[in-house]
Design brief:
Layout (H helix, E strand, L loop, with lengths): L1 H8 L1 H15 L1 E7 L3 E7 L2 H18 L8 H12 L32 H9 L31 H5 L23 H4 L9 E4 L8 E2 L3 E2 L2 H6 L5 E4 L2 H6 L37 H10 L16 E4 L19 E4 L1 H7 L4 E5 L5 E5 L5 E4 L3
The structure holds zinc ion (2 copies).
Length: 369
């Protein structure tokens, strides 16, 4: 919030500071560390950071299932190695289950066979974590709703790859991703789906935001035009203005649609699907820049999207819908805390959330920006 305020009040100094930081402290250092390890430390432009984070998370998401026993830290190490082309670095699921939805390290690693929806999900949901709610039962194949059931064989992996075929590449062929150490070339980046997104306000009032990072100065936003997808702040965010708490003469907005239908009478596309689409998630994140629980500052791109009025899995039309007017970002911990119902939220149409303590009646209001 302070960064955004500084950028809007004194844009030139912020641009200067960014350039100074690049000149004075931008660096990559890799030093020997204990027991066969090295330490890596870097100060890089924000979009480098977002890009790397995105690629690492997408690779982990694409190659490992939730049953992989390793720490996420270990997975990130291997992913970074593979992405930067370290010889022999390759991330494969180590769940050891024949039913692994990610292939479990099976030879069948050609990413071209990834279902289109999974590839789409990998490209878009990369800003992590998954827009899953904590209150949905975890289903193994939830990421691949269209994936075929594993064949009813003792060992479906063997079934997929019957005999070791002589895999001699024609030198005139396009190199496959197995031959090219740059793993994200084909495995991760879906053509036409940029991994960097900059939010801009055509009215020039709200400061630009690099999705996955935060507010950036206008010169930086302009410099990213060729490498990032530019999206406008949604109408809802622009109407609300930069900092809602400062606008005291604004009439109090009414509570949001209590049915959880976001004011719609007919469910818009995707409203009856539990997980929000990439577009809808982006719209929520553009409105709400952090976790909406009291006193939490977790950036919204690291949050779950929670249905304010619960989604009804048996009768989706009857419950809260998957629409902007029924979704708020909550970090994983606060998401679980919300379901303890100690603090009961009321969402307003300006996206204020009033949290009322069930025990004491105390009210805490949180704002989207
Ligand atoms: Zn697995
Ligand atoms: Zn939180």
């Amino acid at each position: 919030q302070l960064d955004a305020a500084l950028i809007s009040m004194n844009p030139d100094s912020v641009t200067e500071e960014r350039e100074d930081i690049a000149d004075l402290v931008g660096h990559v250092t890799i030093t020997p560390d204990v027991a066969g390890h090295s330490s890596l430390d870097a100060v890089v432009p924000a979009h480098y950071g977002v890009f790397l984070t995105t690629q690492i998370n997408a690779l982990i998401d694409e190659r490992t299932c939730r049953k992989d026993p390793r720490r996420v830290g270990s997975l990130r190490v291997i992913a970074l190695g593979e992405i930067t082309g370290v010889p022999g670095a390759r991330l494969d699921c180590e769940c050891g289950l024949a039913t692994c939805t990610k292939g479990g390290g099976a030879v069948n690693s050609d990413s071209a066979e990834t279902p289109a929806d999974a590839a789409d999900a990998a490209a878009w949901d990369d800003l992590l974590p998954k827009p899953a709610d904590a209150d949905v039962p975890e289903v193994e194949d939830v990421e691949h709703p269209g994936a075929p059931e594993p064949a009813d064989e003792d060992d479906p992996v063997e079934f997929v790859e019957p005999v070791a075929e002589p895999d001699v590449a024609d030198p005139m062929d396009e190199p496959t991703c197995d031959e090219v150490p740059v793993a994200f070339g084909r495995a991760l980046v879906v053509p036409g789906a940029p991994v960097l997104t900059v939010l801009k306000d055509p009215d020039g009032i709200l400061v630009p935001r690099l999705q996955g990072y935060g507010p950036i100065d206008r010169d930086y936003a302009t410099a990213l035009v060729d490498v990032a997808k530019t999206v406008h702040y949604p109408e809802s965010a622009r109407a609300a203005g930069p900092l809602i708490p400062q606008i005291s003469d604004r009439p109090q907005a009414p509570p949001a649609d209590p049915t959880g239908h976001g004011g719609h009478t007919v469910p818009p596309p995707g409203a009856l699907t539990y997980a929000p689409s990439a577009t809808l998630r982006a719209e929520v994140l553009a409105n709400d820049v952090w976790c909406r629980y009291p006193y939490c500052g977790m950036p919204s791109h690291l949050c779950d999207l929670d249905h304010w009025r619960p989604f009804n899995h048996t009768d989706p039309e009857a419950g809260g819908w998957t629409v902007l007017g029924d979704l708020i970002p909550l970090c994983r911990a606060d998401h679980q805390r919300k379901h303890l119902a100690e603090w009961v939220p009321t969402l307003y149409t300006d996206r204020r959330v009033e949290w009322r303590s069930r025990r004491t009646g105390q009210v805490i209001v949180t704002y989207p920006r």
